[in-house]
Design brief:
- 56% of the residues lie in helices and 5% in strands.
- The protein has 479 residues and is mainly α.
- The strands form 2 sheets. A 3-stranded mixed sheet has the order 2-1-3. It has a two-stranded antiparallel sheet with strand order 4-5.
- The longest helix is centred in the last third of the chain and has 19 residues.
- The protein is elongated and about 105 Å long.
Length: 479
């Protein structure tokens, strides 16, 4: 049969094919519908052809080979999408029949097919056959497999089960399989992770895969926009899984990356919600985030994290032990930010009052922070100083702090509380250091004035002061 090259087909502006329109029309219903309008040397333009030139070339081979072509995992979806676009019923049936045997594929065949799916992803991401392929691939991912290297590291995933409450045995997932999926672009990777979540994969293993992918791809990104999209997608995926599944350190690394990239607020807030519920696992260095505006450190961030921590505990049960760890952390943070000349009193006081009373057994560090803060901010009025000191619970100060700090700084204390506090200080010192004097005083009803002088005389001198909040916890701003 003679072939007449009587039609030009422009595929997505990438290549022009010279073909016989009668051969195309004999298989393609789409071309048949257009045939009355196609005259000799007519140019047919397809600007959204799935798979582009490679996919259309497979269609021409099928048509010019009397409706026959060798179907493989490497071309199955190219043929399926192209035949659907060109409306070729016989080829659609052949590809659907081939996909029924997908359970017998090897891992390498799945990977080869997935590479083709990546080319077609924009046009087939919602196609039922593609979701079926992903589900089967994930099922293969959860099955044990042999591999030449016996020393490869491994992950553990629960086997796939569409019923959440059904029993699932954990099977070995070899690390090399994840390395073979690192070619995935971020959109297809997101689709894969969402499918893993929907199929009830173990959340501990999902986050391991997410962070492995993120670390591997981040330095391969050629532009800032690509890095931002990668980080934003990672954060969105992490927000879909159980927050207790992944390590706090990994979250802090992701948060540091988001700060360096200056990500948008929605993604930052999602990450803060994850971090706030784990605030008791922080170290002081984790809170020392540089401030964007006036202020050396970001105090607003710490206040937001505290609020999230308290909300999470209110929902899932509040544990005093964890709250005390956060209280200790916030006290250290107050000491660090106290020397900041730009820190407003309202923000400083908010740190001291953000947590419930039982989160702090001692207010020694708060006292130390206030003392530092007022030494830096010397222009405050007496009313302002009184308001700042009101954050402190004098009953929670240790004797060491009372004797060694407050006695030399009573000028900073609110006037109404000074006399009460001095009386408490003297009473405790007398009872602890001079019990016999107290007994005699009660016996003979002598006035306590002389005892007060004796108590002051026996107070340790400043040069011998031992302060647990002093040298070792000196704020970085004072170094």
């Amino acid at each position: 049969m003679a072939h007449y090259l009587d039609i030009e087909v422009d595929v997505n502006g990438e290549h022009i094919f010279m073909l016989d329109k009668r051969i195309l029309a004999s298989y393609s219903n789409r071309v048949t519908k257009l045939l009355p309008k196609l005259t000799d040397n007519t140019k047919l333009i397809f600007m959204d052809f799935p798979g582009g030139v490679e996919s259309f070339e497979l269609i021409t081979r099928f048509c010019y080979n009397n409706g026959s072509i060798h179907i493989t995992p490497s071309n199955i979806f190219l043929l399926h999408c192209a035949s659907t676009f060109m409306e070729i019923p016989i080829l659609i049936n052949q590809t659907e029949l081939y996909l029924e045997g997908i359970h017998c594929w090897t891992w390498s065949e799945f990977v080869n097919c997935l590479k083709q799916c990546q080319i077609l992803f924009p046009s087939m991401k919602s196609h039922p056959s593609f979701q079926h392929f992903l589900n089967t691939l994930l099922e293969n991912l959860s099955l044990p497999s042999s591999y030449p290297s016996s020393n490869s590291s491994s992950f553990w995933f629960s086997s796939i089960d569409t019923t959440p409450k059904s029993s699932r045995s954990e099977t070995l997932i070899e690390y090399w399989k994840f390395d073979e999926l690192l070619f995935l672009e971020i959109d297809l990777f997101e689709k894969l992770i969402v499918s893993m979540i929907r199929l009830h994969f173990d959340h501990n293993r999902i986050w391991s895969f997410i962070f492995h992918y993120q670390k591997s791809k981040f330095f391969l990104c050629s532009s800032l926009d690509q890095k931002c999209k990668l980080s934003e997608t990672t954060i969105n995926l992490l927000s879909l899984i159980n927050g207790s599944s992944f390590s706090c350190r990994a979250l802090l690394d992701a948060f540091g990356t988001s700060l360096s990239l200056d990500l948008k607020n929605p993604e930052r807030l999602k990450l803060e919600n994850l971090l706030g519920s784990r605030l008791d696992e922080f170290k002081i260095d984790d809170l020392l985030v540089p401030g964007k505006r006036n202020g050396v450190f970001d105090v607003d961030l710490t206040l937001r994290l505290i609020k999230i921590f308290l909300l999470e505990r209110r929902i899932y049960g509040f544990f005093p032990y964890r709250a005390k760890k956060v209280g200790f952390l916030v006290d250290l943070f107050m000491i660090e930010v106290a020397p900041d000349p730009f820190l407003k009193p309202s923000k400083f006081m908010a740190l001291g009052m953000a947590l419930p009373d039982f989160s702090r057994e001692s207010h020694d560090r708060i006292y130390h922070a206030i003392d530092l803060y007022l030494q830096v901010h010397r222009g405050f009025s007496e009313d302002q100083c009184t308001k700042i000191w009101s954050v402190l619970d004098f009953n929670k100060l240790s004797m060491l702090t009372r004797g060694l700090h407050v006695a030399r700084n009573t000028g900073f204390l609110p006037f109404l509380k000074q006399n009460m506090f001095k009386t408490l200080l003297i009473k405790n010192l007398v009872v602890q250091k001079f019990p016999q004097c107290v007994k005699n005083t009660r016996k003979y009803d002598k006035p306590p004035a002389k005892i007060t002088l004796d108590a002051r005389r026996f107070m340790p001198k400043r040069s011998r002061m031992i302060d647990p909040c002093n040298a070792k916890s000196l704020p970085r701003l004072c170094h």
